[in-house]
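Protocol step 4 of 5: obtain the predicted structure for the target chain.
Materials: sequence only (see below). No template structures provided, no constraints applied. The aim of this step is simply to have a reference model before the mutagenesis design in step 5. Sequence pasted as it appears in the construct record:
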Amino acid sequence: MASPLVDRLGATSVEHAPVIESAGGLVWRERDGRLQVQLVHRPRYDDWSWPKGKLEPGEALNTAAAREVAEETGKPIVLGVPLPGLQYLTPEGRVKRVHYWAARRASRDEDRPALTARYPLQPPSRDEVDKKSWLDVADAAARLTRAADRGPLEALVDAHADGRLATHAVVIVRHGKAMTRAAWHGTERDRPLTPVGHAQGAALVPVLAAYGVTSVVSSRWERCAATIEPYVRASRARPELSDHLGEAEHERSPSRVAATVRDLLVSGRSSVLCTHRPVLPTVLDVLGQHSRRAVANVLPSRDPFLEPGDLLVAHVAATGKGPRVVAVEKVTPPVF
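Step 4 output (structure tokens):
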């Protein structure tokens, strides 16, 4: 599942109540200097709300958000910064939790690798959504049927005012579960993934696609290259495999790893970097140097930093002082 390092929703306050997890997004754009968002109308409830929906079995929250928004708006999107979620009791006595992200329309050219890696878009059903509307944010606040839905909108407006809304993602992945050193009799750089590790690599694909990853950078060592290979195949991206992201080269020259991370922060392209546990302190140090204080304070600080197959999504905004990490999420993709 996906969760921000600072939980947007917190634990449910209703003990023993069945929980329904759902996810969606606030799709935004700028027109003539005005911030606009997209609302959908659901005929079943006769309400105007944000596009969202329930998770499918084995689906990560962020993957569900990208899928549901695309299905209900009819256009693929790319997830941005996480927004405050909502939780409430349904008339049946269940707890409904809705997780939201800011989102932008995907570009067929710039986001082609991520779109290629996704499942085909299902056409929206008019039984679920019969109208869609782009509105200035003040008009959207007035149009929303539920007052609680204005909470994520207010956070979106604040992020836009602070220059934290237009972002690209730099995703840090620790390679999947590998054979133990004791069980492997080859070289360290050739130590392979276990079957679980291969499943973790496959589980990364829809998550990376949801964040619009177009650039792939990885340690050349087998366990990293194999972890990222499913996304490379699905997206048809051309990976950059590097020896200096391996454990031995990092020990000799951590500055080259730091330079690679800085390049990804500056690039403006959503990217993924796959590396090893001993390399993560250098990676996280660079992220911390380019982070807002509130973000730097919640970056992983204890070994092992990330578990095998886990990823950290850093949302990066361009500022006058250079790239700034304005939000982070830690994700454990579901593996079956």
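Step 4 remarks: Residues 104 and 120 are 18 Å apart (CA to CA). The radius of gyration is 20 Å.
Proceed to step 5.
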